[in-house]
Amino acid sequence: GEEHYNCISALHKSMRGSDENASLYWLARMLEGGEDPLYVARRLVRFASEDIGLADPLALTQAVAAYQGCHFIGMPECEVILAQCVVYFARAPKSIEVYKAYGNVKECLRMHSGPLPPVPLHLRNAPTRLMKNLGYGKGYKYNPMYKEPVEQDYLPEELKGTDFFKERET
């Protein structure tokens, strides 16, 4: 029932708050109560990107490994895998930078009226002669061929200068 959601919320908030003791408690309460370990593991995969993000990019690898370990061996052996992951996450630095930036992109798309802007011609692939003749790919600078970063726009003209990583006005 509702306690299922209350416990996963408490686990998330304990890890987010860097409380490893409480994190282990809520994990054990769920697992000892019969919760599906794969459900917990899936939630940890989400937590790795949503709450830890780029502050520790290896958190996602840790979460996926925990999910796979739980899938391979099941309960009760996988409890220590989940416990390790939960403690790792509680101790990890946190960053919601990517989570917020992606939310800003979604808001931008939702708030756009009319058709979405077309992909700039220089960013389009030109697999046919006709597309090449229409200007697809013209002027594109292939970054690996340059020693220095190249000046090139990657957003549609209407969004030039938009920075989704900055706080958006509501």
General description of the model:
There is one protein chain. Helices cover 55% and strands 0% of the residues. Helix 2 (20-32) packs antiparallel against helix 5 and helix 4 packs antiparallel against helix 5. It has helices at residues 2-16, 20-32, 37-52, 58-73, 79-91, 97-111, 129-133. With 170 residues, the chain is mainly alpha-helical. The radius of gyration is 22 Å and the shape is elongated. 18% of the residues are buried. It has seven helices and no strands. The two termini are 35 Å apart. InterPro entries: AAA_ATPase_RarA/MGS1/WRNIP1 (IPR051314), DNA_pol3_clamp-load_cplx_C (IPR008921), MgsA_C (IPR021886).
Structure keywords:
170 residues, mainly alpha, Zinc Finger, Delta Prime, domain 3, 7 helices, 0% strand
Number of domains: 2
CATH topology-level name of the largest domain: Zinc Finger, Delta Prime, domain 3
Average pLDDT number: 95
**Dominant shape:** elongated
Task: Tell me what the CATH architecture of the largest domain is.
Answer: Up-down Bundle
Following the backbone from N to C, one meets helices and strands in this order, namely HHHHHHH
The portion of residues assigned to helices is 40-55%
Structural class: mainly alpha
**Integer-rounded radius of gyration:** 22 Å
Which band does the percent of strand residues land in?
under 5%
What would CATH call the class of the largest domain?
Answer: Mainly Alpha
Summed up, what is this model?
One of its GO terms (biological process) is DNA-templated DNA replication. The protein has 170 residues and is an all-alpha fold.
